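so my prof wants the structure for this chain in the tokens format not the other one, which i didnt know existed until like an hour ago. anyway here's the sequence
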Amino acid sequence: MLELKYVRANLQEVADKLKTRGFILDVEQIEQLEVRRKQIQVRTQELQNNRKLVSKKIGELKKKGEDAQEVMKQVSSLGDELKQSESELEELQNKLHTIYASIPNIPSTSSPIGKNENDNIEVRVSGKIPKFDFEIKDHVDLGTQLGLLDLEAAVKLTGSRFSVFHGKLAQLHRVLIQYMLDIHTRSHGYIETYVPYIVNNESLFGTGQLPKFEEDLFKLEHHSEQKEGQQANQGKSYYLIPTAEVPLTNLVRDEIVDAKQLPIKRVAHTPCFRSEAGSYGKDTKGIIRQHQFEKVELVQIVEPQQSEQALEDLTKHAEAILLGLNLPYRVVALCTGDIGFGASKTYDLEVWLPSQNCYREISSCSNFEAFQARRMQARWRNPETGKPEPVHTVNGSGLAVGRTLVAIMENYQQADGSIRIPDALKPYMPGVEILK
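here's what i got, hopefully its the right format
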């Protein structure tokens, strides 16, 4: 969420900056609502003060033994008027809050300006694109012919966009997760964290998924009944996590973090659940776009002046996995028209997929600056001022496990349909050199 004081004082400037990302801010509507809010707020305060003054007269009259009926009627009338004014003020404040909560982050000045993905800028390329002297297969044909990937079973069990792995492919998927966690904890200083796979609506609001992207989430219709003595959870809804970013980042929600605790660096492996609303017809074959998939997520909570460098570092940390697996990839800076709702700057890591003859996203690393922190009320105590200020949040996939598996299958395939195991993973799969 943007700083409301700044937005109110610089509406047109904010609108101009948001226009670079294709978002049109209705300045006139906000100005009209804000004028009305101020009027009602002043009127409400006047009524509150008047009621206090008149109520005081009741006590004075009663002390003197005089009739206070007329004054009591006046207090009652003021109370009714005050109640109506407070109700109108609350309605206006809620309307403005909804509008402000729907405003995306202002892009960083270092984000390239553009309309869509065609305007993204390639930052660097790593690795050589493999050349094959045989007809290549995609990951579905490879896995199916090896008897290790069964998409039909997944359809029977659940439906489309789910998968079943068997044998060594299931093992390869598992050790990929362990490899990623080992690299990030041992080499990059992240603390591994286990988090819930179900979160409440407050957590999803904090990181920006709610209310804008509710259709992309799996909402739970039922949860266990409240037991006697437990804190009530009235007004809460529960959802399967779309990414570990949500629980990891919300660990600091409603907290004031001591400066000595920063930076906070966390990594978690979780399943992720996404309805993929609006993506029908895209990547319907295989395991590129699933309703359930695994991801290793990196999150950093940092001082504001450190977030720009933290994004660069975190992106390199995600790249380290691709480098270790010797997979060709590139880093792309997303333009203002392509960055996500809460991000101010984003780098996408795209891995080479031979069957598609192109690079495909495998990680998205973003600096949210104070956007998520304001929604979460996540702050740090600045030692220079002694006052609480919003932290900055940075996160990215390190990596999406399923897409990494696809990249290994396709880039390491051989003429007979077998798949070589990357050298970095051989210690995790003793005695296994090839999937065949």
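also thought this was worth mentioning. The radius of gyration is 27 Å.
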